[in-house]
Write a structure and sequence with these properties.
The protein has 303 residues and is of the alpha+beta class. The chain has two domains: 129 residues, Aminotransferase class 4, branched-chain amino acid transferase, N-terminal domain (D-amino Acid Aminotransferase, Chain A, domain 1, 2-Layer Sandwich), CATH 3.30.470; 160 residues, D-amino Acid Aminotransferase, Chain A, domain 2, CATH 3.20.10.10. The chain contains eight helices and 16 strands. Strand 5 and strand 6 form a beta hairpin. The two termini are 32 Å apart.
Length: 303
Amino acid sequence: MSELPADRRPPVVVRVDDAHPDGEVLDAAAPLIGIEDEGYTRGDGVFETMLAVDGAVRKLPRHLARLAHSARLLQLPAPDEDRWRAAVATVLRVAAREGIGTATDLGEETVVKLLVSRGDPTRGAYGLVIVSPVPESTLAAREQGVRALLLPRGHDPAEDAAYPWLLTGAKTLSYAVNMAVLRHVRSLGAQDAIWTASDRRILEGATSSVIAARRTGDRITLLTPEPNHGILPGTTQGAIFAAARERGWELGYGPLYPVDLLESDGVWLASSVRLLAPVTHLDHQVLPVDRELTRLLTSFLTA
């Protein structure tokens, strides 16, 4: 095991391709990506980010299904589910041996990223599975919540659905815009952004899904924006809604507008590693934070 603290150790990386169907463990300190790799030079690839707790990946079937859907939209080779499961098992075994992980109330947490790149003209497409510790900033967002700003997306992504080359619904490696908006809101004293359409309709967070709740007596209604209007289907939001449906809760799928969030009894940004981050302020207005409901919704993900 490395003597370095977990947050300073290099990640564990496994390559998945035809030559290594069960995954080849790579040296993360050595060069891994060629200069002509189109995933690196053009963002021509897809990815999924997952949470593993005590060596078990959360929502793996949902992530593999979305990875396959994204790959299909980019006309990348279809990921072989058995091959990817074997590679994930390999990388988690090595990560456990190396002591890579972050100890939390849930257990030993790690971030598991699946990546498919177009590759270079010689070797073609390939996959990587990368395991690293959960950052402290992610845990802080879970516990302390985030300040969020509403920002225009610039166009209505629902209009993109008619044009398959715009890759609506694909989780691609082209995340420069998502990172730019986070830098922008941080310069204004916030931590996250929620996109809006030209008509002010709520879309999604920069790297998350939006969930709101309303309480009517003992009844709870969960709300999220329309899933088929240019919004990336969230695996965490989907898992929470599936569990809520089993419990007989009422569910709503938009449209949502800023007033719906401001008048709700709780708003969360949901993502696979951060889980649920309560939104404490929206456009500098204080929102109610329901700690009990946050714990209950989080328990839907751990059941």
